[in-house]
Amino acid sequence: MKTAGESELDDAIASSLADFQEGLKRHDDPLRIVREFITHGPCVAIDRGTHAALREIVANSLDIHPNRDVYTVGSAKLGFSIKPQARFRPFSDTSDVDIAVVSSKIYTDLWREVRSFKDSKGIWKKNLEDMFKVRHFWGSIHLTDLPVSPLVPTQRKLWELGRTLQQLRAAGPYKVTFAVWSEMESLESYQARSVSACQEGNRL
Question: What predicted TM-score, i.e. pTM, was given to this entire model?
Answer without folding.
Answer: 0.92
